[in-house]
Amino acid sequence: MGKKSEKFVGKKSDKYYERTHIVKGLANNKEIFPMVFNDSCNTQIFEAWGEQFLIKELKSGQVLIMDHASLIHLN
């Protein structure tokens, strides 16, 4: 680091590192149906996870809460 009022110059790697994302459920304090992927979560990924895993296991009266779900549109 430079002194105060000095310009700070740093190096940036040209390598791109993929982020790993996880979609999962939580029921009775246990993680259920975790899905790991290396792409941004979008409607198609979430719907595929919901249709293949979550919807089959939901029971009447259970509540689904989604965090950071601004891109997800459920019909």
Features of this protein?
75 residues; 20% strand; alpha+beta; 1 helix
Written overview of the protein:
It comes from Holospora obtusa F1. This is Tc1-like transposase DDE domain-containing protein. The chain is built from one helix and two strands; from the N terminus they run ββα. The protein is of the alpha+beta class and 75 residues long. The chain has a domain at 21-57. A two-stranded antiparallel ribbon has the order 1-2. The longest helix has 15 residues, at 43-57.
Written as H for each helix and E for each strand, in order along the chain, the element string is EEH
Q: Into which percent range does the helicity of residues fall?
A: 10-25%
The count of helical stretches stands at 1
- Sheet/helix structural class: alpha+beta
**Strand fraction:** 15-25%
**Arithmetic mean pLDDT:** 77
The radius of gyration is 20 Å
Largest sheet: 2 strands, antiparallel
Count the beta strands: 2
Q: Strand order, biggest sheet?
A: 1-2
State the shape: elongated
Distance between the termini: 52 Å
- Which stretches are low in confidence, meaning pLDDT under 50 for 5 or more residues running? none
Organism: Holospora obtusa F1
Protein name: Tc1-like transposase DDE domain-containing protein
